Every structure is written in structure tokens, then in C-alpha cells.
Amino acid sequence: MTLDRCLHRHRADNFQTIPECIYRIEEIIGEALIFYEADVLDAAALCRIFKEHEIDCVIHFVGLKCVGESWDIPLQYYQTNIGGTMTLLEAMKQHGVHNLVFSSSCTVYGDPQYLPVDEAHPTGACTNPYGRSKHINELILKDFYAANKDWNIVMLRYFNPVGAHTSGKIGEDPQGVPNNLMPYVAQVAVGRRSHLNIFGDDYDTHDGTGVRDYIHVVDLGKGHVAAIKALENSCGCKVYNLGTGHGYSVLDVVAEFRRTSGRDVAYRITERRDGDVAATYSCPSAAARELGWTAVHGLSDMCAHMWKFQSLNPTGYRSPSVANGHTPVTDGETVTDDAEALTVTDARRRECTRRQASAAARLPRQPIETTGESVTNDDGARKGGRPLLTTAHRTSAYGAK
Ligand SMILES: O=c1ccn([C@@H]2O[C@H](COP(=O)(O)OP(=O)(O)O[C@H]3O[C@H](CO)[C@H](O)[C@H](O)[C@H]3O)[C@@H](O)[C@H]2O)c(=O)[nH]1
What we know:
Blueprint: E1 2-4, H1 17-29, E2 36-38, H2 43-52, E3 58-60, H3 67-72, H4 74-94, E4 99-105, H5 129-147, E5 152-158, E6 160-162, H6 181-189, E7 196-199, E8 211-212, E9 214-216, H7 217-232, E10 237-242, E11 248-249, H8 250-261, E12 267-270, H9 285-291, H10 299-312, H11 346-362
Parallel strand pairs: 1-2, 3-4, 4-5, 5-10, 6-9, 7-12
Antiparallel strand pairs: 8-11
The chain binds galactose-uridine-5'-diphosphate.
């Protein structure tokens, strides 16, 4: 597994959060992972990884992903999100790896012309540089496939991923003030923030607040497993929505979070946020029909699992881990809040490095079979076979929408 630092390449001090997450994934799946700290724009580093492992499929998650930030630093967005894809494609090509799953986004649809949005909906009228970078990536991949018909490429258009693993060990841990609704709500509920600002209540929706298609991250993960199976069946170049098909407003989310957490979520209505659309939700039937994938978790699970992660880890991966049943090494430093964000310590990183070295020594050099049975279930219990996340040969990146 390659963890790309692109999300953090402009904030190198935050990078250290990643090993804690990996450490917890290892605890859930009961096996050690291999990851590389590398920049997706570093062609030599990518080539080294392809040389060191027999890879037959890549999931390309890498990208900068904040709509607002993309207005401030558009060149970094284009460089990382588009340049990264080009560098990766070159490396894959050089090493004969022709199967790719790409993380796209419903943002490519822009302000929907009709609802629910299906894959035939026009794309490209994006409302920000981040969205355009995703759309350009899709165009590049389609052109690339037209010239390389022996490849298989699946582009997954995520709607709004939320929730967390049911163990409460891994979940979303935004650095600084959360940009997205659900982590913000969770931080209000846990007492880290005083109130939520709701960006507008005068949209043409059932209660005036924005409507989105929230999808549980576990369902999203399973969508990738389904996509990998399609690659294995030589699917060619395909695009699928990954959503539930249901739209919920901001106030719906607040109400459900209050119900599942038993906590208050104070809010204030403020101005609309630039670039927000009133409503978007998916038609997910193509993924159901062709990939055999359907989201099973509803809003209640999304809120409950998000709350479990947040309440067990009030300051994210910097929290003493109740969920893990142990307290992470802190080298004597105090965990407080974002401003003093302490991340994973040297001791923890040394531990990760040791585990990865030992995992590397154990890994076979031939491809590992991937089957539906090889994925962990929501509780992290093994269903048999080798968990997908441990297939170091297959997975390329981490950290984006
Ligand atoms: O503090 C907040 C945060 C969000 N919202 C509202 O909550 C809804 C969801 O907002 P998010 O920021 O959680 O998600 P977006 O739909 O704006 O953005 C997401 O979907 C986009 C595609 O439409 C991109 O993929 C983007 O990366 C991803 O974060 C919107 O109506 C937004 O106005 C608030 O009211 N207050």
C-alpha cells in the first residue's frame, strides 16, 4: 500500500498523522501493512514501488480535495491532481500495470440539470478548480483509454462520503477547522466547537438547507472492491456513481446526529457558501446493475459510526485511543486541540516502521488473489482469505475524494 503525502505536501508537519491511522488499520485487520511515504509527482519513487512489488491493480485516491482551498491555490490543485495522475499512468505503463480505479467525484456534474443525477448527466460545468481538476482527470483517462484499449479503467464518482469504521478506530480526522458538514457536526457534538454554521436556509429544498447524497465510507470501500472485480473481468473504461440515491438536508443531518449521539448540536444560519449547489443526489442504478454494488448503510448508521469514532477519539488520531484499548505513546506531550496539534510520535513511527519491515519480509512476491471473501466485514472481523488492504501489490494511494 502506498500512502501518498500529497494531501500534506504543502503542510509537511501534518504528515505524521498517517502512521497512526495505518497502525489502527493493522489492528483491525490483524496483519501488518506496507506503505511508502512518497510523492505522487515523484516518478522515480513510483517506479521503485512498482519494481519492488508485483502489482496488478492500482486504486488512485490521491488528490487535494477542498473546494475553498482550490480557489486559493489552483496551481497546486492542477499540479497534484492532474500531474499526479499523469505521473502514475506513466509509471503503470512502464511496469505493465493496466488496471486502474480512479476516485472521481459528483462535483464533475456541477449544478445538476436534473435529479437524481445519473452518469449520462452532462459533466464539466464545474463550479471550482477542484471540480475542474477531477473533470480533466476523467477526460485524460478517457483519452488515454482510447489509445490503450488493453487497459481497464473504472472511474468512481463519489457523492458525499461520511461515517467511520464501526470499530471506532478509524475515521475522518480533518486538520484544522473541518470544511465538510459531518466532521464539523461531530466536533460540535463532542464539544470541540461551539456551534455549526449552516450555510444558507433559503435554498429551494424541503427545509431551505442544502441537500446531499451522503454515503457511508464502508459502502464506498466496498464499491471499490466491486470495481476491482470489474477490472478483473476486463470491463474496459467505465464510470459509475457511488451514492445511496437519497438526499438529506443539512437540518436532516443535524437532527439525525442529535438523535444518535444524544448530544446537542447547536447551529446558526449564516450566508450561503460560494460554489454550493442547492441539491444533488445520485442515481446509483448503474453500479447496482453492472457492479452488483448497492449502498446498505443509511443516514442513521453514518451518524452513529461517525459519533463512535469522534467520541472515542475526541481529538482525532491525537487522542488517547479508547477504541484501541491502549494509550498511544505520546512522548510526554499533552494533547489539546488543533492549534497544538500533536500527531504521531517518533516512538509510534518507529513501531510502524518496524512492523512494516517485518511485513515486507513476509510478503510473497507473486500476486495475491483478490476475492469478495477477502475483505474484512464492517466490524473488522476477517471473513476469510487475505484482507484487501494488506495486498501491498495492489493498492496505490491514500487520502482523497
Ligand atoms: O460547516 C458547514 C459545512 C457544510 N455545510 C453544508 O452542508 C452541505 C454539505 O457540505 P460539504 O462541505 O460536507 O460537502 P459538499 O457537498 O460541499 O462537497 C463535497 O462534495 C463536492 C461535490 O459536490 C466535492 O466532492 C467536495 O470535495 C466534497 O467535500 C452543503 O449544503 C453545505 O453548504 C454547512 O452548512 N456548514
